[in-house]
Amino acid sequence: MTVPAVLRTLARLSASEQPQRVQLDLTRTAGLVWLGADESAWQTLTRTSDPTASTPAPWTARPEQRETVDRLASFDALHREERLLRLGWAFLCGPATVNGRRRRVCLPLVSRPVRLHPAGRRGHAFHVAGDVGVFPLLTDWSEAAELETRLARDEEWISATLTASGFADVPVLGPDHDPRRFIGGDELVVVAGAGLHAGEPVVSTERGASLYAWARRAGVERTALAGLYSSVEDSPGDDSPGGDSPGEHDEVVHGPLPLSPSQRAAVLAARAAPVTVIGGPPGSGKTHTLAAIALDAVASGRSVLLAGRTRNAADVLGEALRRAGGPVPVLFGDSELRQEMARELGAGLAATTGRGELDQLDRSRTDAVAAVARIERAVREALRDEELVEAAVRFEALMPAHRVVAPRAFGEGVDFERLHALLRPRHGLFGGWRTRWAVRSARRAAGAADDVAAADLEAAVRAAEQSAAQVRVAANGGTSLDALRGLLAEEDARGHAAIAAWLAALAVSRRGAGPRRAVAALATALRAGRVARRRALAGVSPSDLVQALPLWVGTLADVEDILPAVPGAFDLVVIDEASHVDQPLAAPALLRGRRAVIGGDPRQLRHVSFVGEQAVREAVTAEGTGPLADRLDVPKVSLFDAGAAAAGVHWLTEHHRCAPHLIGFAATRFYEGRIALLTTHPSVADVDCIAVEHVEGVRDDKGVNAVEVDAVLAHLRRRIAAGARSIGVVTPFRAQADAVEQAALDRLGLDEITAGGVRVGTVHGVQGSEFDEVVISLALTDADPPAAWRFANDRNLLAVLTTRARRLAHVVTSATEPVGLVGEYLRHAGVAPTETGGVAPSDEWTARLAAELAGLGLAARTGYPVGRWRVDLVVGERGSAVALDTRPHPDGAAAHLARWRALRGAGWRVRDAFPSRFAGDPARAAVELAQEFAPVPATPVRAARSAPVDSGSLPTPEDPLRRQRAAGEV
What we know:
Elements: H1 3-12, E1 33-36, H2 39-46, E2 57-59, H3 66-78, E3 85-98, E4 101-119, E5 123-128, E6 133-134, H4 141-149, H5 155-164, E7 172-173, E8 189-198, H6 207-215, H7 224-229, H8 261-269, E9 275-279, H9 286-299, E10 304-308, H10 311-324, E11 330-331, H11 336-347, H12 357-394, H13 399-405, H14 416-422, H15 431-446, H16 454-475, H17 482-509, H18 513-526, H19 530-538, H20 542-548, E12 551-555, H21 556-562, E13 570-575, H22 583-591, E14 593-600, H23 613-623, H24 639-647, E15 650-651, E16 654-655, H25 660-669, E17 676-677, E18 690-694, H26 706-721, E19 727-731, H27 734-747, H28 750-756, E20 758-762, H29 763-766, E21 771-777, H30 786-792, H31 795-801, E22 805-813, H32 820-830, H33 844-855, E23 860-866, E24 869-875, E25 882-885, H34 893-905, E26 910-912, H35 922-932, H36 960-967
Parallel strand pairs: 7-8, 9-14, 9-15, 10-12, 10-13, 11-12, 13-14, 16-17, 18-22, 19-20, 19-21, 21-22, 25-26
Antiparallel strand pairs: 1-8, 2-5, 3-4, 3-8, 4-5, 4-6, 23-24, 24-25
Helix pairs in contact: 1-6, 1-23, 4-19, 6-22, 8-9, 9-10, 10-11, 12-16, 12-17, 13-16, 18-19, 18-20, 21-22, 26-27, 26-28, 33-35
Protein name: AAA domain-containing protein
GO molecular function: 5'-3' DNA helicase activity; ATP binding; hydrolase activity
Region (Disordered): 230-259, 937-970
């Protein structure tokens, strides 16, 4: 199967036939504030994108405009991630023919996203929030770049733009006219003035033509796209540089980010596979893992392109990389975050590494890794001694007999490793003779008689080793790992920081003459507008660019609109939110990479396609791609699905975000119990986090439940007054979302919306977002038709709706007898959670210690579940609970260390309660531990976090678990 045939099939199935939006929606908000010839607006539109010149432009609204302006600012606050507040200039209004159809248009020839901040008592200031966009009906990007660079406030520029867009002889009116008067008129006109409005004038781009062009290019057979649609043996090889870099093919991940076991496995898989698919439920750290994969690739000398479906997704990826340290990522698209990152990047564009600097940072990195290894080795030895002591106590009665068998083994300075090695059977050539010789050597070393059987000698040597461990442990007062735990936390943090610094210097050190020129060109491009940036990047060597700056982040649309069309320009392409991405949209990004990592959640809302089944059959038949028909079924198969068919899924199992009550329903109903909750803790395990408010509402003929709208607004006011700072209002239905939005604009002030971090949207609109608190308006009643209930009961929709909250969910419903999954969720919400139970211990020491602690009046739980782990013993209630290690982990020291790190990242305090510390006396242990755990004032202490925590893990000052997360292992 050829890649060009696949591309032609995808081109035929491209959803570019969606209707274009050619008129601003001025009805959802206050509409358009006409600024006319205002100088502040023009300065904001034409201001350079240079981050060092981002001074806000002051502006004062006229008295009659102030109410409308405040409403627009409130609307922008409700949709902050979408950047819907825009300044436009030169509005084309009236009837026009667009793509052969007669339409009424209202579009600015120039548009730019802005923020409107209060300044003084009555003034405002325009803050640039993105790139200038030239007329969306202008399809020739080179002409658009030319017009963008010579933007001028005159009729000549307006006429040139209209002519290039296919409009000629359009009258140009002055700024004293209001464009709203001409939308419904009989003549097409341009009003040459500025206007402030909400809503982005988007016209869909023609992806089909782009994919046809790609199909004609050489080199597409050796791209990530080929790996997605080919068998493993036909997939592109990895001939990227850096094959001998540290950690290239080993099973160890040393990076700037801490990782859970499942995240580490995903990073290892992504090192060589043509296509790697990362799946996981909400809060499992998918973005964290994708960032770790990208940085791991950079450490191996590779370049990485990261892309998301939305600007918000791209910003989240960029921010994750930025927090991790290492090379500054290049946000090349229309991102508000790009300005801040461009400032950081600009400060280091001319950076070079001094003589010996990289070697010094490399030594710091290796020293830090070695320090961690030393501590881990000390822990392994201590745990091994504890196991030996336990065995010595169990078999104490046999010690005299063992001393008789091997008296020298019980002396000082015995090399037990050598003795064990001598007693191991030999195989292969002369195996029997070599075994007999080794046993004779062991007898001599242990002082055993010649007739002592090998099995008896081996048992005696083990006993001697146990006796020696008893002496060592007794001399230390028993096994206590508290000091090593503290050292490990410090060295883990130091190691992550050292690796990040080394990565940043490593990227700079690779800048030769060509890459340095590319960096200078990039500096110019980042200060240019969107179209000019594309033209500037097209003239730069892609290999030089990615060598100088290995991390690039943008939306999937940005990738095709801005980056040069070079097959395999990047060593790795990472695509997030892939379940919500259709294949034609992702194809240009996959073509620009050699290997791909695809992340997403198949249980959440899927992509929307306007392609019919007949179109799929015709496209597959016409291009001869029948063998891939199941994978190329674009309406049904998302990018995630296609990746899973090609490579399987690495599933992230740990959940880092929500309290058990919030995630419990989704975990059981949508993820089949495959979520391991790292947030389980006595402080939150039995906390009721979901409230249900029943109201007597009805839906009108427009689908609006006004009573629920009132209840939502009343609840918002209460929570904002109580200090809530992140509230999302979510509903399944568009009409209800619009009604809540209008009510919020009518009844809440800008200060309230901003203070409460209020956002309003449908479930589809909030996918990928999360909030401290979520208010759900179901809008449905018992009288609503089955079709409405079927829509609300969609599994994917509810998988999103029920997992947006980090702390609290408040459900407003008018249904008294809800049906389907909605009914199940409300019943789940109505039952307060119970305390998380554990399991009975398998060892006697833990059982006896738990009984003694309980006898002293302390809550003691054994086998307490935290993520994939079981805590041996948990003592105490709520925020004072402490995790006790009562024995070495049965799966070995590596598992013991991994459990430590997981508990520390989840905010637990961990202590030791090994038998050797208390001479095997559980009563003594209980008394001493009870004194040790006496209540102390909880004081948040800043400590290094050494486990992967998703960006929104229970972030509330009031939560005891939050305080524990901040305090680490205080």
